[in-house]
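Hey, I was hoping to borrow your eyes for a little while. I've been staring at a protein lately and its backbone has me curious. You're getting the sequence in one-letter code plus the fold written as tokens. Would you mind checking whether the tokens look sensible for this chain? Here's the protein in full, and shout if anything looks odd to you:
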Amino acid sequence: AIGAFPLAIASGITPENVTDYLPISDCFLVATGISKRLDLLDARLTKRLIRTIRTPR
């Protein structure tokens, strides 16, 4: 967040780097970081991203 304002990160989020942004971001808009092609999300990467976000720290 930026003060009282929520912060969304909308580019470059992957299962490998999402933990770097968890402390500062309120939400993520993801696409190419978990895509097989521009128009197709990779189910394996999507599940990995969700698991990584849900893992307690």
About this structure: Strands lie at 8-9, 27-28, 35-37, 40-41.
